[in-house]
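Aim 2 progress update. The chain analyzed this quarter is reproduced below.
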Amino acid sequence: MIIRSITTINEKMKRLGDRLIVQKNTLQCLNQECLLLQISCEQTNACIKKMKSDQDEYEKKLQQITQLLEDLHYITYDGTLIWKITNVDQKFTEAQSGKQTSIESPVFYSSPYENYYVRDDTIFIKIMLGFGETLREVLPYTLSVNRGLPTHIQEVIRCMKIEKYKQAREALIAEKIRNDQEI
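Predicted structure tokens:
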């Protein structure tokens, strides 16, 4: 009976030893997989950082290209530049702090022969703030109003130009509708 008990205990010990070996092998495999996963995560994180950096750079380039296209939208060939400056408060703050003391206008055509506004590296410009509801098509007339006139007269002239433009536009639309109906 003792021999039988010893044999049973030996068999159980052998099975437990076999299980222990299997568990050790499983643990080693899991440790290797964890190490591989850690390396893979580090590589993935490095790729994500690179992609984020690239995305930031592309967004910056896209913003620059968008600004260039917007600047091209305002280019005229009659010597007039309509330059819409955005984030004026931020630009004033940057100028006052010395971070960015100047801004550059988009390239514009002034004259085929001579720029009458530039003398001795000085440019004479007219600055207008807040065009409000001024239509883009009427803006050249608004810019050409004599600034020496009283403000209320300037406003009357501007309103007359806007009204004249609206009437001309309505007449063109009415004529187009008549032409379309005739067809």
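The mean pLDDT is 80. The first helix runs from residue 2 to 73. These observations will guide the mutagenesis experiments scheduled for the next reporting period.
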